[in-house]
Write a structure and sequence with these properties.
Layout lengths: L1 H20 L14 H4 L8 E6 L7 E3 L2 E3 L1 H13 L2 E6 L2 H9 L5 E2 L7 H4 L3 E2 L5 E2 L2 E5 L14 E5 L4 H6 L5 E5 L2 H10 L4 E3 L2 H10 L5 E5 L5 H6 L9 E2 L3 E2 L4 H17 L1 H8 L4 H4 L4 H7 L16
Parallel strand pairs: 1-4, 1-5, 9-10, 9-11
Antiparallel strand pairs: 2-3, 6-14, 7-13, 8-11, 8-12
Helix pairs in contact: 3-10
């Protein structure tokens, strides 16, 4: 499986580079009858939004010329409102970020976490949703706080932010895997007690692999005092996602953020979260530190993040 995934990643990168080489030429890529409103958004090709994504169901998957999944459905809704045609380009996570930062694509989506470092090299929209600290747990077991994790076997994927958090838990043993499949396999076999993965990945695995007998639980975020004592515990807190755009794409970012905010207010965002098994109470209500993290960084000092029920 690892070899197949590596080969697919390599082929995906080649596909991205070949498709990027054709960017900016206009011609056949440019839809006819582009509205002045869409053209003013400043996409690489007027009327088209070029999107870098990785295969990351149920957040992003490409089927034909469509991006499906939670992030894909959100962007599809937004693009329709803005009069833009979506053109997906498949790559890996590193290629997604690089494509945006070099402005070879207009945007990347798919559970991209906002960070002060990433925003230095690109623009983030308002959060389409917030990702709660989810745990895949063997049925019958319950873990609520970081203290409950002490001395356990904890699994996640190599390179994920939870690696550092797990390494900070007293007595816990880290099990890092090339992909989520390894986490689920060892969880089902009892070699791992808890798996830290993105929540919709866990929810999807519950449905697709009932033989594993796992459940989804949400960790109570560590307190400010706990994070101060162990800074890497910050990754056990909820994080805010965002759609990521090039630094110069200010008009496009503002237009997409406005649509995201409207989706919170009209209930559309809650419908899409529920469609993929998520809980709007967990996904659409920001934690206390979300606003302060971005205020004075890439948002005004009085910025209020979108929230369900506003």
């Amino acid at each position: 499986m690892t070899r197949v995934r590596s080969l697919l990643s390599a082929l995906s990168a080649i596909l991205l580079l070949s498709s990027v080489a054709a960017c900016g030429s206009g011609g056949d890529d440019e839809p006819k009858n582009v509205s002045a409103k869409a053209a003013a958004l400043g996409t690489l090709t007027p009327g088209v939004i070029k999107v870098a994504v990785q295969p990351y169901a149920p957040y992003t998957s490409v089927q034909g010329d469509k991006i499906v999944g939670l992030d894909g459905d959100i962007l599809t809704y937004v693009a329709k409102k803005l009069g833009l045609e979506i053109k997906p380009q498949v790559t890996d996570f590193a290629g997604m970020l690089a494509g945006v930062q070099s402005r070879r694509v207009d945007i990347t989506i798919g559970g991209v976490a906002w960070s002060a470092e990433r925003q230095k090299q690109g623009l983030f929209t308002d959060p389409p949703y917030y990702s709660p600290p989810a745990m895949a747990v063997r049925s019958g077991k319950t873990y609520k706080t970081v203290d409950d994790l002490k001395g356990l076997n904890l699994g996640t994927v190599e390179g994920y932010v939870w690696v550092k958090s797990i390494q900070s838990v007293p007595g816990a043993e880290l099990h890092a895997y090339p992909d989520a499949t390894g986490v689920f396999d060892d969880l089902g076999a009892g070699r791992v007690d808890v798996g830290f993965l993105d929540p919709l990945i866990i929810i999807a695995a519950q449905k697709e692999r009932p033989e594993l007998k796992i459940s989804t639980q949400y960790l109570t975020p560590p307190t400010a005092a706990e994070v101060k004592a162990k800074p890497d515990y910050q990754y056990f807190q909820p994080y805010q996602t965002g759609f990521y755009l090039p630094k110069k794409a200010t008009a496009l970012e503002k237009a997409i953020s406005a649509q995201i905010d409207a989706m919170y207010k009209n209930g559309e965002m809650a419908k899409l979260v529920e469609k993929y098994g998520g809980d709007p109470e967990q996904f659409l209500k920001p934690s206390a530190d979300v606003a302060t993290a971005r205020r004075g960084v890439d948002r005004p000092q009085d910025w209020t993040p979108p929230s369900a029920g506003q």
